[in-house]
Write a structure and sequence with these properties.
It is built from two helices and six strands. With about 110 residues, the protein is of the alpha+beta class. A three-stranded mixed β-sheet has the order 2-1-6, with helices on one face.
Length: about 110
């Protein structure tokens, strides 16, 4: 369950940037190709943060679809399967536009 180690990294980043202030929400973007199970990440967050300064902080997960752009026909296609092919012309000369993200987008803090 790699979600636990991902959650640890997110929590460490949030706590570092909070610098002792209370955190209300942490928002992350996770690409489809990262193969992170949102429910497992949410569960890991609740367990890991229960006895920390992040105890009451919500974890908001924004899922980013895997999208490719075809060099042949120019169409952008969201992928349902992890096969890098154009959904329009079925060509394989594609560039991955999104889907590999793992980014802490924002950390909402309580004003002192």
């Amino acid at each position: 369950m790699h979600e636990l180690s991902i959650c640890n990294a997110i929590a460490s980043t949030a706590a570092k940037h909070a610098d002792g202030r209370s955190v209300t929400q942490v928002t992350v973007q996770i690409g489809h190709l990262r193969q992170v199970v949102p429910d497992a990440l949410q569960f890991s967050w609740e367990v890991m943060c229960d006895a920390t300064v992040l105890k009451d902080a919500a974890l908001v997960i924004e899922q980013v679809p895997a999208v490719v752009e075809c060099a042949s026909c120019g169409v952008r296609t969201a992928l349902d399967l992890p096969i890098l092919a154009c959904g329009h012309c079925e060509g394989f000369d594609v560039k991955l536009v999104s889907g590999e993200e793992l980014v802490v987008v924002s950390i909402d803090l309580v004003d002192a």
